[in-house]
Amino acid sequence: MPASSSDPVKLSKRPAITAFKQQQLKAWQPLLSPLPVILSFVALGIVFIPIGAALLVASYEVIEVIEQYDERCALGASCSVTMHVPSTMAAPVFVYYRLENYFQNHRRYVKSRNDQQLRGLQVKDFNSLQDCDPRRSVNNDHNTDPASFYLPCGLIAWSMFNDTFAVKDAAGNDVALRKKGIAWSSDVDMKFKNPPAGTPGVRVVADFEDEEFINWMRTAGLPTFRKLYRIIDHDLPAGDYTVNIQNSAQPSVLRPPSSVLRPPSSSVLRPPAAAAHCCLCSCCRCLRRRRRLCAP
C-alpha cells in the first residue's frame, strides 16, 4: 500500500554515502626508511644551525652590570654605588631594578586590585572593592564612606616599589634617563587612567598613568623578577658610573628595619628577605623588544 503524503517521514542518522563522510578519502602514508629520515634531519640542521649561531652571538653581545645595594643603603637614606661598564653599551640601555624573594605571584596579592578604579572610573560601592582586602579603605577597611576609599585600593598599589635612581658618568655629568615608553602601550592607552578631578578618596598613588606605577601593577610570575625603571637613549662608553639611590620605601609598607625588602604586614605577603638590585643592560638591536615578549 503506498504511503500517503500525510504519513510522517522516517529520518535516518546514517551519514550520506560520500567518500568524505564515510572516511574513504585517499590518503598517503610515507614509509620512513633510514635515508629520507637522515636527509630530513640534515636539511633541518642546515636551516636551524645558522639561526642558533646567530642567536648565540646576539646573546654574547648583551652587556649586563648588576649591583646589589639593599645592604648598603639604610632605610630612608641616600647612598651611592659604583658600577663598572666593561665595554661600550650600545643604545638603548635599559635600567632595571630586580627584587628577590618577593612573591607578587601569590593569589591574594595578584587579585588585590580594582580595575574599574585603575581605568579612572569612580567606585562608590564598598562591596565592589572586596578583592582589594585588606586595603580597601582607612580605619581597618570598616569605613564604607567613598571619601575613605583608597585610590587605588589593593595590596599591589599599596606596596609599590619607590626607590629612585640617578646615574652620573665619570665626569660627574648626569646621564639622561627616559621614563616614557617603559610600560606596555596597551596598558598605557587602555588600562590606566586618572580618576576625574574631585573624586573622593585617599590617594595612594598620585598619578595612575605613571608608567613606573603601571609596570609595578603588572605582577611578576616568579619571586625573583626585574622591572624596567628607565631607558638611556645614547651609548654608554666603558668606564665607571655612579648610581645615586634614594632608599625611600615606607617602613610600614615595604621594608623592616633590616633594610631588606618585604611587603606589608599581611600574612599573605611575608616572604624571606627580598634583596634589591640595580641593573644596567644593553641589548643588541634584534633583542630590543625582548622585555615585551617574556617576563623580566
Question: Secondary-structure blueprint of this entry?
Answer:
Elements: H1 34-60, E1 63-68, E2 78-85, E3 93-99, H2 107-110, H3 115-118, E4 150-151, H4 155-158, E5 164-168, H5 185-191, E6 202-203, H6 211-217, E7 225-232, E8 239-246, E9 276-282, H7 290-293
Describe this structure in words.
The chain is an alpha+beta fold and 296 residues long. It contains seven helices and nine strands, in the order αβββααβαβαβαβββα. It has helices spanning 34-60, 107-110, 115-118, 155-158, 185-191, 211-217, 290-293; strands at 63-68, 78-85, 93-99, 150-151, 164-168, 202-203, 225-232, 239-246, 276-282. A four-stranded antiparallel β-sheet has the order 1-9-3-7.
